[in-house]
Design brief:
three-stranded antiparallel sheet, elongated, alpha/beta, 8 strands, 57% helix, five-stranded parallel sheet, 356 residues
Length: 356
Amino acid sequence: SCTAEEAAGSAGPRERGLCVLCGLPAAGKSTFARALGRRLRQERGWTVGVLSYDDVLPDASLDSEGARPPPSQWKMLRQELLKYLECFLTAVISGCQMSAPPNRTEAIWENFITCLKDQELIFSSALKAPYCYLLAKTAVSRPLFLVLDDNFYYQSMRYEVFQLARKYSLGFCQLFLDCPLETCLQRNGQRLRALPPETIYAMGEKIEKPNPQKNAWEHNSLTIQSPECSLESSLEVTDLLLLTALENPVKNIEDNMEQKEMDRIICSTNVLHKADQTLRRIVSQTMKEAKDEQVLPNNLKLLAEELNKLKAEFLEDLRQGNKYLCFQPTTDLSDVTSFFCNEKHNIVQKYFSKQH
């Protein structure tokens, strides 16, 4: 086997790419991925690997009630899977055997290996080396595209895949299957392992569609209206997108503007987190003061509702950079607190005055 550095350094001229296939559960991603794989193999002669997160992380991704684990745990599982994908990529780029990483979750690694074997991308090398795998000749000699099939509802999830593409100078593109929520819920209800409807509703509210205007790294993105667009016409357009991605691999040079954008997002997230904690404390303290002032129970309830609504609106405005502050990494938390306290004061006075 080879190290990641050796593999990255020996990257040859062959074309390789990563495609992120994203959208709500039951939007038709897996069906589309299979059809895309068949088309690219038959008509272009490419080697295609479809990596469905639901297949590789099935037991870990759902609990007994069909719900996903906490975001922090799910993030770790996703990153582990990307680590395995990197093992495969380094082997392909360098022409070495693929070896199992030392720190791995055995069940997930086995699912990953099965996924690659089923698509004839690798095969076991020998009985005496159970954790070494040989690459199929087609994986090394032909253009290779790996399609990652998952919800990828946050931009940050997709950015991790882009970073991998940049590290190894691969082509990169995104496909977003835009399917009406009602259609997804209906399809989901017909599945053997249906998700709870509230999970799909929640994801529908959180999903961040590719935004090439905002993020330069998302410029190679395509939105497909599912199920309005015919599969055949969608595949034709997608074919061109993937070809463009292969012919224009991501440069492995740090883009300062791109890095600044990611730094801004991280900083924004940190400020929002601190603001959320601070505003929670202010609301809690205000409710304590209201009880000390012996505000009537019914008015206490109304006050709490108004303050929590204000907090939610305030944080959303802060996130979007709309009403209260233009969002800058240098935003002082004391300014945020001051804005909130002014608004809070007007609400509190209204309820305190009702006592008299």
